[in-house]
Structures are given as structure tokens and as C-alpha cells.
Design goal:
Layout lengths: L16 H17 L3 E7 L5 H14 L3 E6 L10 H8 L21 H16 L4 E6 L6 H13 L5 E8 L5 H9 L5 E5 L5 H12 L5 H8 L5 H12 L26 H11 L4 H13 L2 E2 L1 H8 L7 H9 L3 E3 L4 E3 L2 H9 L3 H17 L4 H9 L7 H14 L4 H14 L7 H14 L3 H12 L5 H17 L3 H14 L4 H15 L5 H18 L2 H18 L2 H14 L4 H10 L3 H13 L6 H14 L3 H18 L5 H15 L2 H17 L3 H17 L3 H14 L12 H10 L3 H17 L4 H15 L2 H12 L4 H17 L3 H18 L2 H16 L28 H11 L4 H8 L3 H15 L4 H17 L7
Parallel strand pairs: 1-4, 1-5, 2-3, 3-4
Antiparallel strand pairs: 6-8, 7-8
Helix pairs in contact: 1-2, 4-5, 5-6, 7-8, 7-9, 8-9, 9-10, 10-14, 11-12, 11-13, 11-14, 15-16, 16-17, 17-18, 18-19, 19-20, 19-21, 20-21, 21-22, 21-23, 22-23, 23-24, 23-25, 24-25, 25-26, 26-27, 27-28, 27-29, 28-29, 29-30, 30-31, 30-44, 31-32, 31-33, 32-33, 33-34, 34-35, 35-36, 35-37, 36-37, ...
Length: 950
């Protein structure tokens, strides 16, 4: 442990030569390779983790690194981002401003936007010089910092950043979780610190007392079991004026220590108390007030807790600093080690601790601190009926909900526990708890809380409020019928205020959107919207418009869906993705592109995963398979990070279809398995229909017509094929499967559905073209197939057009019109190839080759001969997609992920996905290596014949 001057400042490094060498290697490797590393120092309290961390920071600064050091605090372990704040704000050139969280919206989960912002800040600094970010005592990391640390190291693995954490030995906790999250994405290291050898302990004694210490002293020091903190504090106790060699004897039998997630052996606290016992009473009292506030505290706050003006405590402050117990960084005071704080805290009478923590909570709130800063203090002594604690917990939960919904849910769960059944605010607290639990994705807990409160027979108005609060959780659990039942029950009993009634009506309409009678749902939605407008309730207004949009899309009414979702996104910009997708269903890809660009220019949208879904649909519709898959991969990762699986089944269905178009049957099988797993989590009708369709497609691809048909029939039992908006452009595939299996009845039914959908959307080329394609395939009508191609050629979807051309070309071949077939199949091949559907293009190429081998013309006036189409390599520069090439070149030129995203008008998360693929395909690990590869490639390109290299 570091002392104040002299050799003692290095004493904590005795016996740590091997660990120092490894840390030096880590620091140097980040600068050398230009890529990130993640390391965890583990060991018991006092074993020397903090000292090694400080030495690593000093080494990094010698190497020219930019450094940031933070420390998690037991009494601040709930405060969002408090643990990482020191890393990002504490240096002379802070990476993060103090108001970084100020502009995050209150109504949506903002953790992903925060990660993006922090990634940009660190990446920008790392572009100037390697970065070391060090966090001490990770076992007390706050929930938001914990979430960020699970994401950022992997996200910034291509930047020269060393993430160095320290944590106490014990059950696997935050440190191990952070390492596990990064293990597959960057090199991780764990350094376990054991006890010092007897030689190192003897050297510590010589550092402190000089070479002439006696054998009894050595025996005492060796009794510390190799713990350097305990040894140094014991030696300092021996050095203290007027104290003998037994200064700390018996100390282990006194007092206790503040309970926390990592209990500290009493012997360690006792070792520190030996020196503290010699302090002036005024210094001891000042230190005790500081110990109540936490390891780091403000001088003004400690003075207020002492009940004295700051000027009266200057002498005590000076004494604490001179004794080597406190550090003063000019802003905050901090105990040099948390064991010192716990030793001071142990001498506060137990009966006084809760009162002091309650006083600390009050003064923090009065001084303008956020409610969450005071929560840890008030919870230590809170008991049922504690209204002050409940008020503070509610304020804190409301404050942290946008960035840490899980913490907000925990706070409100505790608040509800503190409210007695007879308290007037019980149901109000319960309603807030249900909302927070639902926002955190803890839907079953929300349901349990609601039902427990309903069992207490609340007033009718409260009954409705509780059911309205639960609605989002029921919808997320796909319990549409239960949601409808509860909403109708709450509305039927009456007594609810107009705003609550409007919310319940909107929830009922939303639930009915999953039913079969969409006319009833539409009527309910219209009534809900009118009620919301009359009540002037924004939440009800948003919910009613959302329900009407869902109803319109499920009914296949594209025009109405656009109108509803446009209105919705004007009320709440977070629903812009729904408006984008509605325009895509109407073939208005230009308008969708405009909205996506506007959102990117404005800094993105609040629901990043849903934004990526809309962007993926844009790429898919326009035949950009590589970009579509990149967005879907990114979206799935973000949903996993937030634990909110909304579109994961649909994403896997699309990715499986893409895999088959590329010729990757194994990949399609993996996606099908993943889709089934995710459907088990969310078994709603739409997910079940999508998986049935994919099972049919895969079985048909494998030549198993019976299985393919069985899956299609299951899909039809779930509901009409065109009900499921993901599948509408793919009706032709299902019709082709039915025709191939000889089931004309099913094929005609599917064709009739497509025709009805086209009639509802007469201005949509894709709808009309797919209807003609389905009818042509079902009836083997060349004229209809030709009409389908003509209609789809006026639309924006090249893959749908290529599929229609493939169907027409095969039909022409079957009719013996091989000359016409060749031109159509050639166009189909080119369309598939341009979209990245290599296997489909190869299939068309084989048909063309067969036609040529049969003596039919290979070309004609204005028609080029068929060119072979092959799969892209899986490794090397030539394996990169067009978007990956753009990203690679920008990053190689020095762009950050953010600046590359702005240049390409895509999400920084998508840039990260592309960059991950680039590094994997090029077998590199850093931006420096990428720049070298790109430069080598450019030099080779200048020397190669034109057109040989891209």
C-alpha cells in the first residue's frame, strides 16, 4: 500500500515483480498492436490490487497513454455511471462532460444511446494516443457502469484501449461478468494476487522501520498472512508516537464493519484501526462523518454532517491528510483505501449509524444532490412504514428510469415493501412499481405485483389504473387475450377517470389487433383515439395510434397504416421506425430513405434496435442483402444487450432466407434453429407463422415436399398468409411449393389471398405483381406470369422481380419457348447477382447453360451471353462486401466509427458490425493493421492491370 513519501510509497510492490511484468506487457501490447485488451486483478481486500493499478497507470503515462481512473464505491453503488465517472471525467482532459446524461429522453430506454456516446468519446481519444481506463473495486460497480462495461471493451476492440479492473476474490460477480462478455471479442487476462512471501513481508518491514527491527516485530508482521495492507498498517501503528509493539494486539476482537457485497475479514479492519486509534478526537470525528458518506466525499458535506462550518474543521482535515488516511484531489476527499474507511466506520456505535445515514441522506438532498445519491444511506435504516424513505425511493426511481430501468424496478420494489397495506399511497407506489418493472422487461414480476395489489380490493378508480399500468407487460408477454379481458373488466366496472379509461380502451384495441375480427378491432381503436383526444392524455393518444397502426398493417391496409404511423411518429418521434416500415409496405422506399436519413442526421432515434430493423427492411427491399444482414446482426445484438427480444424471430427468418439465396444451407439451418428457440420465448401468432414459413422453405430446398407442405398448412391454420406482413412479398415461394407438391387447392387459396391484398392496395406495384405471380404459378398461366414481371419491373424490389423472372423463365422453358426463356432467365440471373444472391444466380446460370447445351441460342441481338456467377470468397480482401469495403477504407484512412457512420449515413452500431466482419475476414485485430493492409492493397492496385483489383 502506498504511503506518504520515502520507500514506503513502493512497499506495496514488494513481491509483485511477476505481476508488474505482466502489466507492463499489457500496457505495451496495446500501443504496439493498436488493439484493445481487458484485464482483471483479483484478490482479497488489502492484497495490493489498488497499488498495482496505480503502478499500471503510471506505466501507461510513461508510455504516453491517455489515462482515466475510476473507483466504485460501496455507498454509491446505485448511482448511475458513478463508477465510470472517474475514468471518463477525472483526468486533465476529460473524455466525458458532466452533462453527458442531461439530454437523454425520459420515455424510452437510453442505455444504447449512452453506450454509443461513450464509445465515440473513448474512440476519439484513442485515435490520438493509446488509452488506459482503470476501475478499482469493480465488485461495487453501479448497474449502468456494469452495463456499459459489458459492451464497450468489445465494441472498441479495434482501438488501442486497455481496460484494467480490480475486484475482490469471492463468488463470481461484476468483474467475471464483464470478462465473460468480452472474451469472444478481445483478449482477456485475469491476474490472481496471492499472499506475499515471507521475504517480501520482511522487506516491507525494512522499508518502514529500517533494517534494525527486532525478531518480535518480524513475528508480528509475518502473522498478517502475507497481506501487504495489514502488514503496512501494523508497521505504521508501531511507528506511531507513544505506542508500543502491542498497539494492535486484540484489535480484531472489537467492532464490526459496514456490510456490503464483499464482506471483509475483521482482521483486516483491525489492522487499520491500530493506527487510527492514536488520532486526535476531532480528527477521528471528522473521519467518522466522512466514513458515513462513503470512500469519496465532499468536505462541505462532511462538515454539514458534523454540524460545524467548514472553517472549524480545517485542522481536522489537515490532520487526516497528514496521517496518510485521506487524499485530497481539490474536488473530493477520499480514504486512501476502503479498509481504512471501514476501520473508521467500525468505531461508530451501531446505534448511531442509521441515524447518521438518515442525516446524510437529508443533507445530500438539501444540498441539491440527485435523489439516487442519497438512496443508499436511507435504505440502511429503512423499515416498513418509513414514508421518508418511500418518497426518496420514488423520486430516485423516476430519475434513473431512462438509463437504468432495472435499478428503477429494484428501487420501487423496495419502496412497495416499505409501504404498509393501510398506507394511503400504497396503490400509487404499486402502480409506479408495475410501470418500472415492465420497462425493465421484468413482466412476470409486474403481473405478480399487480395481482397482489388487486387482491387487496382497491377502489374502482385504482383498479383501472393498475390494469392500465400492467398493459405493456401483458403485451410484451404476448398475452393479448388476457390483456383484452383485463381492459374490458376495468372498463365495465366503471369509476375510472377519463384519462385512465382512454388508456384502457387503447390497450383493448391493441389486444384486438391480434384477433381474427379486425373490423371490431378498428372500431375499438377509433373509439380509443377519440377518448384519448377528449381526455387530453398523451399516453393514451400514443397507445391508440399504435393500436390503429397495428390493426391497419395486420389487415393489409397500407394506406391507413401509413396515416396512423405518420401521426404516431409526429406525437412521439421514437415511433419513426414504424412509419418507415409502413412506407416500405407501400413501395415508398424513397420516402422511407428520406426518413432514415433525417433520423441519422438528427442523431438517430431513441429505439435503436427498431431503427435498425427498419433500416434492414430498406436494404432487403432494395436488394442489398449484405447490408440487410449486417443491420439484422446488429439489431439482434442490441436486443440481446437490452434483453428485449422484439424482432429476433423475424430477423432469423430473413437471415435464413438470405443464407439460402447465397447457397449457405448450413447457415440457414442455424438460423432456423435460432428462430425456433426465440419463438419459444415469444410464441405469438406472427412469430409462429414466420417460423412455419421458414420450415417450409428449408424443407422445400432440401427436396422434402411433404414436410414443406405440412409446415405451410400449419401456417394457414394460424391465419391467412397475407396477415403476416413479413411474408407478403414471399407468397410466390409458398405457391410454388404448393404447386410442386400437387396441392392446387392450397396454391389457389394463397393466390386468392394475394389478390385480395392487391385489391386493398391498388397503388402498390409489389402487391399487384405478387398477386399476378401467385395466380400465374397456381394456374400455370404464362400471360399472368408475364404480367407479374411487367408490374414488378415498375416497382422498387429487385429480388421479388428476379424471383418472378425465374418463375416466368421456367414456365417458358416448359412451354418450349426456349429463346424467350433465355432472355428472361438471364435478367433473373443478373438481378440475383446484383443483390448478392449468389446461389440463386448460379441456379439461373445452370438453366442457361442447359439451354445453350441443347443447341438453343446463347444470346441474341442486344443480349449478352450468360456469365458464371460464383460465391464470394470467405477470407481476404476479395471476401469483403461493398459496404465492408467502404467501412474498411474509411477506418483505414483514420475515421472513427462515428465519423464513418456519418459519412455512410448508417448507424455506428452497423459500422461496428461491418468492422467486425472486416477484421475476421482479413485475420487482423487493430486499425493499424487495417491501415497497413489497405495501403498494401492500394500499392498493388497501382501496379496491377486495370480492373484486376478492387
Amino acid at each position: 500500500m502506498a504511503g506518504s513519501g520515502g520507500p514506503l510509497s513502493r512497499s506495496g510492490l514488494r513481491g509483485r515483480e511477476a505481476e508488474l511484468a505482466e502489466l507492463r506487457t499489457l500496457v505495451a501490447s496495446v500501443a504496439r498492436t493498436g488493439s484493445a485488451r481487458l484485464a482483471l486483478l483479483r484478490g482479497e481486500p488489502g492484497i495490493g490490487k489498488s497499488t498495482l493499478l496505480a503502478e499500471a497507470v503510471a506505466l501507461a503515462e510513461e508510455f504516453g497513454h491517455s489515462t482515466g481512473v475510476g473507483r466504485a464505491d460501496e455507498l454509491h453503488h446505485l448511482v448511475p455511471l458513478s463508477s465510470l465517472a472517474g475514468c471518463l471525467r477525472g483526468s486533465e482532459r476529460p473524455m466525458l462532460s458532466g452533462d453527458a446524461l442531461a439530454d437523454l429522453a425520459r420515455h424510452h430506454d437510453q442505455r444504447i444511446r449512452l453506450v454509443e456516446r461513450l464509445a465515440e468519446a473513448v474512440e476519439t481519444r484513442a485515435a490520438e494516443a493509446p488509452v488506459l481506463l482503470a476501475l478499482d473495486d469493480v465488485q461495487w460497480v453501479d448497474p449502468l457502469s456494469r452495463f456499459v462495461l459489458r459492451q464497450l471493451p468489445g465494441r472498441l476492440r479495434t482501438s488501442p484501449v486497455l481496460w484494467l479492473l480490480t475486484g475482490r476474490t469471492g463468488p463470481e460477480g461484476a468483474g467475471e461478468e464483464i470478462l465473460a462478455a468480452g472474451r469472444d471479442r478481445l483478449p482477456v487476462t485475469t491476474l490472481a494476487l496471492g499472499p506475499l512471501s515471507s521475504t517480501a513481508i520482511s522487506q516491507l518491514a525494512g522499508d518502514t522501520l529500517g533494517p534494525d527491527f527486532d525478531g518480535r516485530t518480524l513475528s508480528l508482521v509475518e502473522g498478517t498472512a502475507g497481506n501487504p495492507f495489514l502488514a503496512v498498517e501494523l508497521l505504521r501503528g508501531l511507528q506511531a508516537p507513544g505506542r508500543g509493539s502491542t498497539a494492535v494486539e486484540g484489535a480484531a476482537d472489537r467492532g464490526a464493519f459496514l456490510p456490503g457485497p464483499a464482506p471483509v475479514p475483521p482482521r483486516l479492519v483491525a489492522g487499520a484501526r491500530g493506527r487510527i486509534g492514536s488520532l486526535d478526537p476531532d480528527v477521528s470525528r471528522f473521519l467518522q462523518m466522512g466514513a458515513v458518506l462513503g470512500r469519496r466525499f465532499a468536505f462541505d458535506d462532511a462538515a454539514a454532517l458534523c454540524g460545524l462550518p467548514p472553517a472549524a474543521l480545517l485542522t481536522a482535515l489537515d490532520g487526516a491528510v497528514r496521517a496518510g488516511l485521506l487524499d485530497d484531489d481539490g474536488v473530493l476527499l477520499s480514504f486512501r483505501h476502503d479498509l481504512l474507511r471501514q476501520a473508521v466506520y467500525a468505531d461508530i456505535p451501531p446505534s448511531a449509524r442509521n441515524a447518521l445515514h438518515r442525516a446524510a441522506a437529508r443533507l445530500l438532498v438539501a444540498a441539491g444532490h440527485r435523489p439516487i445519491d442519497a438512496v443508499s444511506h436511507i435504505l440502511l435504516g429503512a423499515k416498513p412504514g418509513d414514508r421518508e424513505a418511500v418518497v426518496l425511493l420514488r423520486r430516485a426511481a423516476d430519475d434513473v428510469l431512462p438509463v437504468t430501468p432495472g435499478l428503477a424496478a429494484d428501487l420501487m420494489t423496495r419502496a412497495l415493501e416499505l409501504v404498509r397495506p393501510s398506507d394511503a399511497v400504497r396503490f400509487e407506489v404499486g402502480e409506479q412499481a408495475i410501470v418500472c418493472l415492465a420497462r425493465a422487461g421484468r413482466n412476470r414480476e409486474a403481473l405478480a405485483v399487480c395481482d397482489r395489489l388487486l387482491a387487496e380490493q382497491p377502489p374502482l378508480a385504482v383498479f383501472g389504473r393498475l390494469q392500465a399500468a400492467l398493459g405493456g407487460a401483458l403485451w410484451s408477454m404476448d398475452l393479448a387475450e388476457e390483456l383484452c379481458r383485463r381492459a374490458e373488466a376495468a372498463l365495465s366496472v366503471g369509476g375510472v377517470p377519463p384519462a385512465v379509461g382512454a388508456r384502457l380502451s387503447a390497450l383493448r384495441a391493441l389486444a384486438l389487433s391480434r384477433g381474427r375480427d379486425l373490423d371490431v378491432a378498428l372500431s375499438a381503436g377509433e373509439e380509443a383515439l377519440s377518448a384519448a383526444i377528449a381526455a387530453g392524455d398523451r399516453s393514451a393518444h400514443v397507445q391508440a395510434l399504435s393500436a390503429l397502426g397495428e390493426i391497419a398493417q395486420n389487415a393489409g391496409d397500407g394506406f391507413a397504416a401509413v396515416a396512423r404511423f405518420t401521426a404516431l411518429s409526429s406525437v412521439d418521434r421514437a415511433f419513426l421506425p414504424e412509419e418507415v416500415v409502413a412506407h416500405q409496405h407501400m413501395d415508398r422506399f424513397d420516402r422511407a430513405e428520406e426518413l432514415l436519413r433525417r433520423a441519422a442526421d438528427d442523431g438517430g432515434v431513441h429505439r435503436q434496435a427498431m431503427f435498425l430493423w427498419a433500416q434492414a427492411q430498406q436494404h432487403l427491399g432494395l436488394g442489398r442483402l449484405d447490408d440487410a444482414e449486417a443491420d439484422l446482426v446488429t439489431m439482434e445484438r442490441l436486443e440481446d444487450d437490452l434483453r428485449t427480444p422484439v424482432q429476433q424471430v423475424n430477423a432469423r427468418v430473413i437471415r435464413a432466407r438470405i443464407a439460402l439465396l447465397r447457397g449457405d444451407r448450413a447457415g440457414a439451418g442455424e438460423h432456423l434453429a435460432a428462430a425456433r428457440e426465440r419463438m419459444a420465448v415469444k410464441p405469438n401468432p406472427g412469430n409462429r407463422a414466420a417460423v412455419c414459413f421458414l420450415e417450409s422453405v428449408v424443407s422445400a430446398h432440401d427436396g422434402d415436399a411433404a414436410q414443406a407442405m405440412e409446415a405451410l398448412r400449419r401456417l394457414q391454420r394460424i391465419g391467412p398468409f397475407t396477415r403476416w406482413r413479413l411474408l407478403r412479398p414471399w407468397v410466390g415461394i409458398a405457391v410454388g411449393t404448393a404447386v410442386g407438391a400437387g396441392d392446387r387447392e392450397l396454391a389457389e387459396d394463397l393466390a386468392a389471398q394475394a389478390a385480395a391484398h392487391a385489391a386493398r392496395n391498388p397503388e402498390v406495384p409489389t402487391a399487384a405483381g405478387v398477386a399476378a405471380l401467385a395466380a400465374g404459378l397456381a394456374s400455370d398461366d404464362l400471360a399472368l406470369l408475364d404480367r407479374a414481371v411487367s408490374l414488378l419491373a415498375t416497382g422498387p424490389r429487385p429480388l421479388v422481380l428476379a424471383s418472378a423472372r425465374a418463375g416466368l423463365g421456367r414456365a417458358l422453358l416448359a412451354a418450349g419457348r426456349t429463346g424467350e426463356a433465355q432472355g428472361v432467365l438471364s435478367d433473373a440471373r443478373d438481378g440475383f447477382a446484383a443483390s448478392g444472391a449468389q446461389a440463386a444466380a448460379v441456379g439461373m446460370g445452370r438453366l442457361l447453360a442447359d439451354v445453350g447445351a441443347s443447341g438453343v441460342r446463347d444470346g441474341g441481338p442486344g443480349r449478352r451471353s450468360p456469365a458464371p456467377a460464383g460465391r464470394r470468397p470467405v477470407q481476404g480482401w476479395e471476401s469483403l462486401t461493398a459496404s465492408e469495403l467502404k467501412v474498411a477504407r474509411l477506418i483505414a484512412a483514420g475515421h472513427t466509427n462515428r465519423s464513418a457512420a456519418e459519412t455512410l449515413v448508417i448507424s455506428p452500431h452497423t459500422v461496428n458490425t461491418h468492422l467486425t466482419a472486416v477484421f475476421r475476414k482479413l485475420s487482423i485485430r487493430s486499425r493499424v493493421q487495417l491501415a497497413h493492409v489497405a495501403l498494401t492493397r492500394e500499392e498493388a492496385q497501382r501496379e496491377a492491370p486495370a480492373g484486376r483489383l478492387r
